[in-house]
Structure formats: C-alpha cells, structure tokens
Amino acid sequence: MSVEIKIGKREKAYELLQADAQKILKLIGVQMENLTMPQCPLYEEVLDTQMFGLSREIDFAVRLGLVRADEGRELLSSLERQVSALHEASTQK
Amino acid sequence: MSVEIKIGKREKAYELLQADAQKILKLIGVQMENLTMPQCPLYEEVLDTQMFGLSREIDFAVRLGLVRADEGRELLSSLERQVSALHEASTQK
C-alpha cells in the first residue's frame, strides 16, 4: 500500500511537471505567433521567468524525492530543445 | 504505514517551502544591506522573480495534495509581510 501511494505521487508529480512544460511551450508558441519578434526583450523575459518557475518546481520535486535529478534535468532540457526548434521554425518563415 | 509516509511527505514539503521562503528573505536582506536602494529596479526584479519561483513551488505542492491551498497562500503572504517589514526597517535607517 505504501509503495503504491509513493508511486502514485511520483507519477502525478512527473505528469504535473510535464503538463507545466507543455503550457510554457504553448505560451511561447502563442507569443511567437503574435509578437513575431523572438528578439524582443519581453519575449526573452517571459521565457526566462517561465523556465525559472519550472526549474523551481522540478528542484522542489527532486528534493522531495518524487522525481530523480536526471529525470528533472532531462525534462528541462527537452523543453529547451522544443523551444529552440519552435524559435528556429518561426525565424525561417 | 501508508498514512505515515503521506504525513512524512507533507511535512517535508512544508519544511522545504518554508526553508525556501527563509532563503528569499535572507537574499533580500543581503541585497538591502549591499545595494542600499530598495527603489532599484534590479532589487524589484530579483524579488519578483524569487516570489514567482516560490509561488510555482507552492502551487505545485498544492496540486500534488501535499500542502493545503490556504496554507500555501499564508506562507506566501507571510513572506510578503516579512519582506515589507525588512523594507520599512531599511528605509527608516
């Protein structure tokens, strides 16, 4: 029973973090569509702030023992790669 | 056993959040001592960013069911009150 609960919280923690990463990606996508200026300082600021927020969540989950440190790093760098790909696709339009 | 584990994670979650709030308070204190300018935009930006980071952690813990929403709000507003008090003490020097 205790193991089940632990796994449940771990899964939920990872799911929440992934959902938050997707939300950031979507926000950045919307920003790119509407601002059409990835060089805009506001864009950079929003991205930095959002990435910082997610990194704080991940760090918290790792310290709680709900997510492994390498999983957390991978989640963050995967998001970074996706944002870069979005960025590239948008500048090549 | 399962209940114990759950309580353990809840306590740990709250402890971590409180420790993070204390870290922010300390950082703001150091900034005030050294910058001696609470009106400085950099100071505001650091404070906003740190508060945002903590609010993301708290929100995550609430969504995971580890911290009650009202506990989370109280933790954040308690930190805000402490920062204000620090701010006031520093401007009255």
From TrEMBL, chains A, B:
Pfam families in alphabetical order: DUF1507
InterPro entries linked to this entry: UPF0358 (IPR009983), UPF0358_sf (IPR036270)
Coiled coil: none
NCBIfam families: PRK13666.1
Similarity comment: Belongs to the UPF0358 family.
Protein name: UPF0358 protein P343_03520
Organism: Sporolactobacillus laevolacticus DSM 442
Lineage per the UniProt record: Bacteria, Bacillati, Bacillota, Bacilli, Bacillales
